[in-house]
Amino acid sequence: SFPEAARREGEPAAQTQELVESLSGTIHEILEPRRLIFSVMLILQCALLAGLLAVFRTYGRDLLHVSFREEVLLLAPAAAAGAAAVVVGGTISDRVGRIPVLGCGFMFAGFGIWGLSTLDVPLVVMPLAVLAALGLGLALPSMNAVSLDLSRTEAGSGAILGWFLTMEGVGYVLGPAGAGLVSEKAGVAVVFWLAGGLAAVLCVLALVP
Fold first, then answer.
1. 3-class secondary structure for the chain?
2. How distant is the alpha carbon of residue 16 from its chain centre?
3. CB of 206 within 8 A of CB of 102?
């Protein structure tokens, strides 16, 4: 019948309008100041982590003047400290709040990484690396928790969470590319100095209301 045919012809238009409205609502949610700032934090955090990993071997060779094996042994305590901090970071965050843990974690990381950019004495490098790893390890669970908190909306959490994961991917791409370029042009010490700066920016963004 004519009414039924008209209804069927109108269904695609209605579905398109519903999709446009849904997409518009999602964009509005993403542009909300807290989510926008957190998106920047995700990019910076992932760029920081990936950038440091990208120049790991260069750091040992050019700044510490040690073999790969010696570098691994030297920084093994830092890896253990970071793993332990991730385990306890979530519990601490639940007790004292996400923001204080994020602020302290990125502050510790910044001081540790800045120290690593200027000092090359193994006995000094080891505790500085532990400090940096502790800070990053403490911050990681809180970042994940905030990501889940901010992804919750009345329409569901899938779209916002997908956006946050995309921002992480952007950071993981930009970090190694930028670190490799800076290391080639200015040296690995500058990479660590800039990485410490990223940690400081993250600390400020975490603590600003």
1. CHHHHHHHHHHHHHHHHHHHHHHHHHHHHHCCHHHHHHHHHHHHHHHHHHHHHHCHHHHHHHHHCCCHHHHHHHHHHHHHHHHHHHHHHHHHHHHHCHHHHHHHHHHHHHHHHHHHHHCCCHHHHHHHHHHHHHHHHHHHHHHHHHHHHHHCCCCCCHHHHHHHHHHHHHHHHHHHHHHHHHHHHHCHHHHHHHHHHHHHHHHHHHHCC
2. 35
3. yes
User: To 5 degrees, how large is the angle CA 84–CA 89–CA 95?
Assistant: 140
Q: Are 142 and 89 in contact (CB under 8 A)?
A: yes
Give the span between the Cα atoms of 71 and 56, in whole angstroms.
9
Per-residue pLDDT of the chain (209 residues; tens, 9 = 90+): 545 544 455 556 555 665 555 566 567 777 788 889 999 999 999 999 999 999 999 999 999 989 999 999 999 999 999 999 999 988 888 888 888 999 999 999 999 999 999 988 888 999 999 999 999 999 999 999 898 888 876 655 678 888 899 999 999 999 999 999 999 999 999 999 999 999 999 999 998 86
